[in-house]
Amino acid sequence: MKGDYPQFQESYSHDELVEYFTLDETEREFIAQFRGDANRHGSAILLKSLQHLGYFPHELSEIPRDVKLFIAKQLNLSEDLSMQYLWDSRTRVSPGRGI
């Protein structure tokens, strides 16, 4: 439908996770600059979400668990640390609202 924004699927196959959410070397170098595992994980999740959707999700809870865990594994994390990431979505620009 025209005007609808892309949304996350409820779940992704392994091939889809690899296609949409694999961190390349440049992204890994960028994310490595952040201090703390939770900050690196949260930043990586938002980066890949922006690339996948074209905008930042309103809440980190909108991002499927399999996506968060797939990104965590790439960062050598054994668990999803996204809930420890301090991100205030109120500072974002809503899709279609402009800057």
Q: Tell me the domain tally.
A: 1
**Main sheet characteristics:** none
The radius of gyration computed from the alpha-carbon positions, rounded to a whole number of angstroms, is 13 Å
The global form is: globular
Fraction of residues in helix = 40-55%
Distance between the termini: 24 Å
Number of distinct beta strands = 0
Task: Provide the residue-averaged pLDDT.
Answer: 83
Oligomer: single chain
Low-confidence stretches: 91-99
- Portion in strands: under 5%
Compute the number of helices.
Answer: 4
What features would you describe in this structure?
- 43% of the residues lie in helices and 0% in strands.
- The two termini are 24 Å apart.
- The radius of gyration is 13 Å and the shape is globular.
- It contains four helices and no strands.
- The chain has helices at residues 14-21, 25-32, 37-53, 65-74.
- It is an all-alpha fold and 99 residues long.
Brief description of this entry?
With 99 residues, the protein is mainly alpha-helical.
Write the topology of this structure:
Elements: H1 14-21, H2 25-32, H3 37-53, H4 65-74
Helix pairs in contact: 2-3
What are the key terms here?
0% strand, 99 residues, single chain, globular, mainly alpha
